[in-house]
Amino acid sequence: MVAVEGKEGLQVIIMAGGEGSRLRPLTCDLPKPMVPVGNRPVMEYTVDLCRRYGLKDIGVTVMYRPEEIRRHFGDGSGFGVKMTYFEEKEPLGTAGSVKNAAGWVKSTFVVLSGDALTDFDFDLERAVRFHRERKALATLVLKTVPIPLEYGVVITDEDGRIRRFLEKPGWGEVFSDRVNTGIYILEPEVLEYIPEGRAYDFSQHLFPRLLEMGKPLYGCVLDGYWCDIGSLEQYRQAQHDLLSGRVNLPLFGTEEKKGIRQGRGCVIHPTARLEGPVMLGDYTTVGANAYLGPGTVVGSRCFIGERASLKASVVWDGVYVGHRAELRGTVLCRRVRVKDGAALYEDSVVGEGSVVEEEARLQPGVKVWPGKYVERETVVRENLIWGNGTSQKIFGCNGVAGKVNVDVTPEFASRLASAFASTVGNGRIGVSSDMAGSSQMMQKSVIAGLLAAGARVFDLGQIPAPIHRFAVRQHRLDAGIHLRREDGDGIRIYFTGPQGTAIDRNWERKVENLLRRDDFRRAGGGSIGRVVYVPRVMEEYLHHLVGAVDAAAVKRAGLRLVLCYDTENLGLIVPALARELGWELLGWQRNLDFSRRRPEEKILAELTEKVREEEAHLGAWLDSNGEEMVLVDERGEVISDEALEALMVLVIFRERKGARVVAPVTAPAVLEDIARRYGGEVVRTATAPARRMEAMLREDVAGTQGSLPQFFLHFDALAALVRLTHALALTGQSLSHLRGEIPPYYRVARKLPCSWEEKGKIIRSLAEGAVEGEIEMLDGVKIYWDDGWTLVLPDADGPYYHVYSEAGTMEAAEELAGDLIEKIEALRREKK
């Protein structure tokens, strides 16, 4: 504590009103005094200084978003001071804002800037003595700086009396290195020279006027640190100076080890590497093998993903930084999301609430304004200021997916459910999830959103997605929502129609529009929906599957199966099916991540070896939700996805000659060969699950296929296993023998990057005849040649396009794909 002569009765006014346009996009939604430096709002340091030196009567002038400042400081009691606010209805300038507090000023007062970082103890004993000894009307606190070009230069005589002002001079005008810090000691009489109710500035208007009038105007040079945070460069410099110890101010958090400061409740993985000076806010998580380099400040409630790398970067509160993301000298404002593999380079800034998608790049110096959306794998070279700011498309190719509590939060899930319910009306909506804790949490949020919109909710419990679809049909519900964990920390929300099929794109657009406009139904208290709990859903499904085949025949076959499945999600239904159908399960369970859509190669190799060792009839890996299957025959050979699709079509045709089956445009042409052999027909559809499901459930298709139709076989791995084992039992043939009936085919698939803008242009050019050949446009552009076909299909979720080809030999298929890719690349070059 410094004794300040005559400090009793000395008042303080902190100017906290300006928006600070030069700090955009940092301050587009935050007053400059609330911009964090070292995990504290910069104005908080000034308030602390006042309290430490006994100046506890503080007036605060506010204009831009005053509620932010009031919310943080309140009446000042939490900071050991008393604060009184003076709000400007119109911008009044620095002097005009202080004039606004004239009725509060009773004595000599000090004016401080709320957006400057300083450790001046004001040397108030000296400064006040200097002011009073010279009987000054106004004393400006000055600071000596090496390069004064960006400041207001003040020229004084030997006694400190001001002789001249120069506002941001050129080098030819620099006659002094003493600059105005914006800290003033003033007498109440000064307020008489400030006009009422109009913009008026201290440095531009008041002080030059007082100087011209010959009033006693003085400058007092003080030592210590001072930085006017008026630009992004100065903002970053202030962060660095604070962390490196150049500023004599108390720092946030505790120093756990040298150079590493952290707040409460931080979780830092043992393999993470922090190289000081580094500062972490409260309850922040740092993942495995992450690196935080010197000069990095991370706010509170942030998440830094595995192998992320941050150097000399400033991260505000509530920010998500994904796995493998790179930050180099960048600033991320509140609630920014930087996804996996993204890279942000020197002097870039991302405004509040913006999203930078996977593998995107922000070039040096790029500024992204608040609420913007940077698409996946794009390179941003210019400031992103205008635009809609969000992705127009919420739904992907199969529902809504993203990381839990990052892309998909409980609040978002609830709003999404309300929007969906608004498209259903007063309908009955079934809700279910898998067993993952994150899915069950989101299920509760979804139910709350449905009820808030007045829907009648049927809680189907924790079941796999195929059972959900079955229950929606079985109980004649109007729609359904199912949630499942995916890819570790991700989640996917499926939406189903009354037949248990995925909703189509038109329905998705309705939901997206309602959600974007926040225009969904909000039921009154008397019309809030209710929850009906549906029991025995899994038993009904089991009874349906077993009843659809000759269970006695399957039992007599005594089939031996090696199944690798998620015991948490499928641990009840798989053993129950085995009991009912007499499968001998050669249990091979591992502690695996079944949220992956495909098994790792190592696991697949172990599965094939186990099938051979046990002399099993077949082996299978099932994903956690029972939708996807990787099949292995009795010889330990993996059956590809395309061969599995052809195999299930073959099973249908063998049991039901003349049947009609559904296949997407990407499926091999051998399906038509099989159909001709059995007098059947193949109905081609688009690749979207909703389109395929809709076609499979048509009566003229499903009615030709028997009691367990194709809809089950392609979107339900358990149903596919049931019908496949039924076919093996009836024929007495091996799986490899059945597979041998599929004619050989040679197919190539390629996934290639392109910008979002280019995807539509490529398809349009091909459709308009950019290549020769017979063209089909059921989904993408499919081109038929004499020796095969090629297909170009834009990706539904990312900046890619897919090229498929099929021919009589692998060399011919490769050549067809290569020729088309060359043509597409030529079209891309022409468009640039």
Can you characterise this structure?
The protein has 832 residues and is α/β, with parallel strands linked by helices. Helices cover 31% and strands 25% of the residues. The chain is built from 24 helices and 53 strands. The strands form eleven sheets. An eight-stranded mixed beta sheet has the order 14-15-18-21-24-27-30-33, with helices on one face. Strand 52 and strand 53 form a beta hairpin. It is elongated. The two termini are 67 Å apart.
Summarize, please.
This protein has 832 residues and is an alpha/beta fold. The chain is 31% helix and 25% strand.
Write the layout of secondary structure elements.
Layout: E1 11-15, E2 36-37, E3 40-41, H1 42-52, E4 57-62, H2 66-73, E5 82-87, H3 93-99, E6 109-113, E7 116-118, H4 124-133, E8 138-144, E9 152-156, E10 162-167, E11 178-186, H5 202-212, E12 217-221, E13 226-228, H6 232-243, E14 254-257, E15 260-262, E16 267-268, E17 273-274, E18 278-280, E19 285-286, E20 291-292, E21 296-298, E22 303-304, E23 309-311, E24 314-315, E25 320-321, E26 326-328, E27 331-332, E28 337-338, E29 343-344, E30 349-350, E31 355-356, E32 361-362, E33 367-368, E34 373-374, E35 379-380, E36 400-403, H7 410-424, E37 428-433, H8 437-452, E38 456-462, H9 465-474, E39 479-486, E40 490-496, H10 505-517, E41 531-533, H11 537-547, H12 551-557, E42 560-564, H13 567-570, H14 573-581, E43 584-585, H15 601-614, E44 618-622, E45 629-633, E46 638-639, H16 641-655, E47 660-664, H17 670-677, E48 681-685, H18 689-696, H19 699-702, H20 710-715, H21 717-731, H22 735-740, E49 746-753, H23 756-770, E50 774-776, E51 781-785, E52 788-794, E53 800-807, H24 810-831
Parallel strand pairs: 1-4, 1-6, 4-5, 8-12, 15-18, 16-19, 17-20, 18-21, 19-22, 20-23, 21-24, 22-25, 23-26, 24-27, 25-28, 26-29, 27-30, 28-31, 29-32, 30-33, 31-34, 32-35, 37-38, 37-39, 38-41, 42-43, 42-44, 47-48
Antiparallel strand pairs: 2-3, 6-11, 7-13, 8-11, 9-10, 14-15, 36-40, 39-40, 44-45, 45-46, 49-53, 50-51, 51-52, 52-53
Helix pairs in contact: 7-8, 7-10, 9-11, 12-21, 16-17, 23-24
